[in-house]
Amino acid sequence: MAVIKMNFLSQALGMQTNITICLPTYSFADAVADRREVYVPGMKYQVLWLLHGGSGDDSDYLNFSNIARYADENKIAVVMPAGYDSFYTNWHEGCDGAQYYTYITEELFHTLPILFPFSTKREDNFVAGLSMGSHGAMKIAINHPERYAAALIMSGSAIRPKNIAQGLDTVAEHSGPLPTILKRITRLQQEDFVKGTENDVNAIAVEKARSGQPLSQFFITCGGDDFALEGTKYGSDYLKELGYSVYFEEIPGYVHEWDFWDLALRKALKEWLPLRRSILYPGRESV
């Protein structure tokens, strides 16, 4: 497994930023099997675009989960961008002005396959996130079903307008003083900011469901004792009512914690997501 820490100047963000990338490479299992043919010109990887939660950065999953091992076992590249407390949203006024939604969905999605052997086919791309990252992952998958075959949503969902007071109290109670996150949750609840944009996730989900186009499949999970359980169930039920393919699993005994997210990642990569679990070689389905 190759772990790459990439720093570059982002056009969308207007600043240097970091990305952590996992790439399956020649492994001990390959050595034991005496496998010689691993690196072949034109080979590609399926890709999991994995978004971190609030107060985190691109190193979170590498530091607190076994994502590198899971990626290697399932032969999938994992891209973990630094989204900070952005909610993966394009901010204009009252914040930092950075275009985080554009950064993830346009700049990285189109640039990284030029720099790395990533497949750009819909069936080979998946988006995932936990907590704040679940908001980003759900928003991205609903807006771009033509790009992502499936989405993994852990401990949260897209924020729904006009239901803010209880949510803010819950975040403040469980997460302590997080002024930037609370400020942005507030803004994402306001109709003048949301309506007519990619942030109007409920309305866009309805529009996409009615369009007849293929929709991303959703795998949604939350700990049974997590404060985000109600919102996670809401997102799952809402998408099911619209006709989306949704698998929901509540796992008892877990809260908003890395033990749960590591378990969810392992389940998703081994059982849930429609992965090939093989490197994609030219002229062959897999090896």
Summarize the entry for a quick read.
This is Esterase family protein. 39% of the residues lie in helices and 19% in strands.
Please, could you describe this protein's structure?
- The protein is α/β, with parallel strands linked by helices and 287 residues long.
- It has one domain: 3-Layer(aba) Sandwich (Rossmann fold).
- It contains 11 helices and 8 strands.
- The protein has helices spanning 28-32, 60-64, 67-74, 100-115, 132-143, 165-175, 179-188, 191-194, 201-211, 229-242, 258-272, and strands spanning 2-10, 15-23, 46-51, 76-81, 125-130, 150-154, 217-223, 246-251.
- Strands 1-2-4-3-5-6-7-8 form an 8-stranded mixed sheet, sandwiched between helices.
- Helix 10 (229-242) links the parallel strand 7 and strand 8 (246-251).
- Helix 3 (67-74) packs parallel to helix 11 (258-272) and helix 5 packs parallel to helix 9 (201-211).
- The model is unreliable at 163-168 (pLDDT under 50).
